Amino acid sequence: MLEYLYLPQLTLLPLALIVLYLSAVVITVVNTGVYFQKPPQKAFYGDALCAAHLAFCIIGTAVFFCFSSAMWLWSAKYALSRSDRTWRLCVGLWAIYFFKDLPQLVIETVAITKIGIDDAYPFQLVAFFYQAVFFALSTMGTSATYAWYVAGALERDFGSATVPEDFFRKDPTPSEPTTPPPRMLHEGETHSPFTENPSAGIAFVDAAADFNNRYDDALQYLDGPRIQSVSPDSKYAAPPTVI
């Protein structure tokens, strides 16, 4: 997914949305200034349509710069989890959809229908095409994310997919029989405390507990001459001496 393609501290999807919608805002502003606010177009379309186009051009631009772009950048750079990133991305998309894409497409469609495609101003057709593409993409994203969050809310409040109480208390059943670890081979000198017989140089330890006991006895055996006394339970205890 595009969300997982990382630039330096930025994800690609929010950055792409910021760049694409910036170009769409510029096209809308230019279309409003050079076409819809001219006296011939006001006389042809009427003051109401031209005023609505100007109003939603200003509202959409303000929403993009003041809210949606900030939410997308916040999602890309400062979100600590995937859920936070997705939520902030969706909120910015919903805002730009309801305050720019949807009303602008309705106004542009009414204008194109009234004047006709053959008689439309070329830049007006370019702006209408851009607006239709952005409306289609934002509609799919808004509807999908809205359905996702509503379904999650319904499941939390009214759903029946619950985890049994004893689910996490069950002992795991191994899929394959476990085999004991191999015996550890220890090589030592003739007087190594690891050997049962001091004359032997090799000893096998059959269990981890046996190895721990032998290891503790070895430490006591080695440290015996440096301390006042050692545990009397150890079979390697040395007489209390001081160096």
Short description:
It is built from six helices and four strands.
How would you characterize the overall build of this protein?
The chain has about 240 residues and is mainly α. Helices cover about 60% and strands about 5% of the residues. The strands form 2 sheets. Strands 1-2 form a two-stranded antiparallel sheet. Strands 3-4 form a two-stranded antiparallel ribbon. The model is unreliable at about 1-10, about 185-195, about 200 and about 225-230 (pLDDT under 50). Keywords: Membrane, Transmembrane, Transmembrane helix.
Physical arrangement of strands within the biggest beta sheet: 1-2
- Mean pLDDT, to the nearest integer, reads 77
Number of strands: 4
How much beta, percentage-wise?
under 5%
* Cα-atom radius of gyration: 38 Å
Major sheet attributes: 2 strands, antiparallel
Total of helices:
6
Structural class: mainly alpha
Shape: elongated
In angstroms, what separates the terminal alpha carbons?
70 Å
Helix content: 55-70%
Biased composition (Pro residues): 174-183
Transmembrane segments: 12-36, 48-74, 128-149
Keywords: Membrane, Transmembrane, Transmembrane helix
Region (Disordered): 167-192
